[in-house]
Amino acid sequence: MLTTNLDRMDEKLKAFSKFGALEGGGITRLSLSAPALEARAEFKRRAEALGMAVASDDIANMYATYPGSEEGLPRIVMGSHMDSVRSGGNYDGIYGVLSSLEVAETIITEGIKLRHPITVMVWTNEEGARFEPAMMSSGIVMEKFTKESMLGVVETGGTVTFGEALAASGWVGGEANRLNSRDYCAYFEPHIEQGPVLEEEGLDIGVVAGVVGMVNYDIILEGVSSHAGTTPQSYRKDALRAASKTILDLWDKLGALAGDLVFTTGEITCRPNIHTVVPNYVKFSLDARHQDMNVIAKVVDVIENLPKDVYGCKLSYEEHWGRKTIQFNDKLLGYVEGAAKGLGYSNKRMYSGAGHDAQYVSELLPSVMIFIPSKDGLSHTVVEYSSPEQTWHGANVLLNALIEADKNL
Ligand SMILES: [Zn+2]
Q: I need a labelling partner for 344 at 20 to 30 A (CA). Which of 170, 228, 245, 358 fits?
């Protein structure tokens, strides 16, 4: 089996970790910010030095393309994003871009003949850390959001709109350059796992079968505010007490549904939030994710069947949003799995618990993701880490899966 170059893979990651570097490690490289534009320029410089043609579309997604040997075949595309969250790490997103670039560099410099053109792609604003929502530009391309509404989004904590940042970036190209199912035939996205499973199980590679389905609810308890000193306990309709009981009940009931269901209450509002007043209103979030939509349906069932009265407080709920489980392409999964096996890398099929551009792209093109382990399962933090060998393994799997796709598609 062919391999990429370990030192070159590592050099790329180190070089790009300078753009938006924080003292003490990690980066803040918000979408279309000055350090993000520096990273784009360096990506372009490196791609062009390899003889790739670099283009961008009307929302500044970047496409670096190298021709194949057969006329008229669609491109195979691979990539991810270069933006980060505030105080993020050196691997989330950028690893997918740079492992793809390393694969392209291997193919070009070693003269590996491919039938299809190959494209290394960079998505604009995947994180949504500066301009909400996350996966904005893949969402625009796949018509999840309208471009017009996104152009008006104002940056978090500032005044610049997404449209203004785009115009100032110098990266606005033609809409015709957008990823599409005519000019492209397959999408690969390598990424760090961002969770602990591969490391815990001592595995080299995650063959990502899809992205888990999820539901997102707000659960509301309404009681009566009263004086903390003068209201005997037995007279109280304390919304926070009722919410606490409900959260613990949910842990018991949801925990019994499936061992690998994940669910989180991460946000809570308490009113009036005064230490001498019994709370009359508590709202808390519930996020639940699982690859089997039957399990998600059971989660919804549990929520719908919560008691409507808890310690004298009225319980209600609102569904915010949800998404169905995304299944990646079987053929591409087979190529990734075959490449991992052929290289002697331990691997397993798994689902992503986090959202990625690939989930939207999968509606347009056959798509797949490749995961490498994250140290201690940590991501979206400055200590995010995967070893040089681990990053190299992922690139090698991508290289061989791509070659297999090139033969068969
Ligand atoms: Zn990412």
A: 358
